[in-house]
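Database export, one record per block. Field names are fixed; values are copied verbatim from the stored entry.
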Amino acid sequence: MMDVTIEYAGEYFSLAEEKPFYVGRQGDLELDDNLFLHRQFLEISNSDGLWWLSNIGARLTATVTDSSGGVNAWLAPGARLPIVFEQTSVVFTAGPTTYEFTIHAKTPEVKITPRDATDDGESTIGHVPLTASQKLLILSLAEPLLRREGTGTSEIPSSAAAAKRLGWTSTRFNRKLDNVCDKFDRIGVQGMRGGQGKLATNRRARLVEHAVSSRLVERDDLVLLDAEAASNDGTGDS
């Protein structure tokens, strides 16, 4: 039986086979006093010779990814996934706050072999290319999460704040946000569409979750964001 450890904000928690491990507002991994967060949201437990990650909440979802970003899953309420990778990233949003923790497994069931890739200057998810400005938009929303130390929490900026960070008008930002979300929706990424009863915050949160967990944007990419902000400093945007 493999050993499993949880890493969050620089702290490590060892799991016992005979006892479930709970993540939420209360539990073995207590996040913070966020009323949007379930008291107990995720459960990590051992059953039938496997470790499982289960969503025991009623409303929230989580994005689960292997360390390479090659496997990306949407964990809805009531769903569960086996923990089979050496390192599994779990990202989720409750209200305006995004959380991330990592599951480490010794002697995992599956090991990912990195594949060679050539950088053609264009980022893709599935078969959907992103323009430079679309990647900048995602970076502006994911910046707090990417700049954090360890795997703590962050608040996703409002569209107005992200547009200001880039030096763009709100109209340009919102138009490009619509385009990016439409692209991801077409390849099956959940939560990209708005609609009655769905807040704009939720769409931005899902975009950040997916982009960060799938390694579409990384901390090293933030130099692009700084360069864009500097180029528009004091010049405005048309």
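Remark 1: Residues 163 and 170 are 6 Å apart (CA to CA).
Remark 2: The chain is about 25% helix and 25% strand.
End of record.
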